[in-house]
User: What shape does this take?
Amino acid sequence: MQILKGIPVAAGIAIARPFLLEREGLYCPLRRSLSDAEVERDVTAFKEAIAKTAAGIRRTKEKLERRVGKGHGAILDAHLMILKDPLFVGETIAQSRREHVNVGWAFYQTMQKFAQLVASVGDAYLRERTNDVEDVGWQVLKNLTGSDKRTLDNLKEPVVVIADDLTPSETSDIPRDRVVGFATLTGSRTSHTAIIAQALEIPALVGVAALRDVAVGEGLVILDGTGGVLILDPDEATLEEYRRRQRMSVQRRKDLRKLAVLKTETSDGHVVSLFANLELPIEVPAALKGGAEGIGLFRTEFLFLNRDTIPDEDEQYQWYRKVVEQMAPRPVVIRTLDVGGDKFLKSAGEAREMNPFLGLRGIRLSLAHRDLFRAQLRAILRASVYGKVEVMFPLISSVEEFRQARGAFEDAMVELRSERAKFDETIPVGAMIETPSAAIVADLLAKEAKFFSIGSNDLIQYAIAVDRGNQGASYLYQPLHPAILRLMRMVIDMAHAAGIEVTVCGEIAADPLAGALLLGLGVDALSVSPVSLIEAKRLIRSTSYVEARTVAQEALTLPTAQTVREVVLSRLGSRVAAAS
Ligand code: PEP
Ligand code: MG
Assistant: This one.
């Protein structure tokens, strides 16, 4: 039995045989245990891959010499030499036979060793040749995996997929009935793959670094997408324990799901709205299943990331329309592009900034790239015909900025009218409150915006001056910091005085302690990721509004985040504790 740690990204437990997915252009082959006969089959395939690579290089050399003359193909002779090197080929085969592992993995190890050896020679010319080694190596790997392509299409039994990485499209094409879980070597909590796994409710782990070296055999594996472990060849007792946990978690989900259809109101009848945050259209069914009353935050930048080109107006229109139609008649709050900070477009040629979180991020970037902004606003407007759309701008820091953004939106409306295109003339335009400056002038902004949405993830980082992604400083990132509670109270009170509503759409909304406080501060709606909907509903329904108000008033007088936490826990006790 071996226990490998990973980053849990989609809850649940899967128990099945592993399926190692290898594909062309893979990041690094995974190690597999093979029988003698399988090793020999692999060795033959490897020799064929070497021959195929050599033939390809020879063809390229001839083509090059025909075009630019003899002699210029000499660089490719070096590539051919590498393929004949005894270490490169012989050592790979020997290791594979010695350790009973797949040749692809052994070859990748050889490639690494070879490149290190060449790079360690003090000669600049030879050091340069490291690239040649890698180039040739990848060609061999491509030919090798190409000849032994294992796909998910003809699976006979349920499996846990193990891969170096999965692209978003691979993840969304996964046959849900046969893939019960997946674990990848690379990836992060916020990767597309993680979001899609959650949406499809497939227990998943990413960043299982040990998969680089550990041999995965044919025996059962346990994948714990809650606890963050992948267990290879579990013993009987472990298997029994995880089977028990699996039964419990299935039952708990069933019980909670009954809540999805119930009203979002506190135990004493105070009604709030509960919306879902969405990154990709594929999450809509999960949002609906969780009982979302609408989409409170559609992070449109996810349609722009992980690709080489920017989606044009029509492509965006199709995406927005799909979400709006599926959610109708429920509202969908579409947030305009929020890149910069920690999310970058491959295609925009943005200049590297010293402080990207304080630079051309969010609405600032849209206002600096008017064509990009215009296309998005037109796409949103056109999609508004199919349901109920609202639009909001990220990272607003002043009234002027909000006016400029709304002005661009009105220009797009004028254009569409002149083209006789249909759209909803009454779309509400709101401001995200994510900067301390916006919070401080919330009374002025409230005269111009139709609603507020507090982006607490950013409001916390900007108010406390702590990078939201910095591990070293994460102890300072305190959602219950008295400054944050006071800012929230200010924004909510000012909005209500002006007659507009406030949603909170940052992670804080899904935190049981903070969620209870937000209710007490008088927030009108919470917007959380689809997986958190049911828990948020449970929390709201088990909290008394009168009690939450009293606790919130008390919390506003306390000096530290720690005392706030203690007081909320002692006053609201078991209800929030059970959920936290
Ligand atoms: C926020 O800042 O709280 C928010 C919801 O926006 P994002 O997390 O996308 O920056
Ligand atoms: Mg934000």
The two ends are 32 Å apart (CA to CA).
